[in-house]
Amino acid sequence: MKTRIPALLALLALFLTSCAFIPRLGTSERSWRNHTISYELIYIQGNVKAYRSDGAYYYFNAGKLVMVNQTLVPAENVPAYTGKGAATKSGT
Fold it and tell me: What is the pTM of this model?
């Protein structure tokens, strides 16, 4: 029985860490969707998509995560991805 407890704890730790996907700016939309259990598409406008998951809004521009927010933001206020881990406002 003693040898089973560490194995069970290791399995539990592996399960918990595999569920903890925290996306970074620049994460691809496909990767985010594959790692997110429950989400709802809120809008698509041009290259901008907004999703809602776990009480937060996730904004993608040209397939890259550019912003995570607690409130819904209009597509024209969603920044473009610069490719350097930071986002800039569209049109600037």
Answer: 0.71
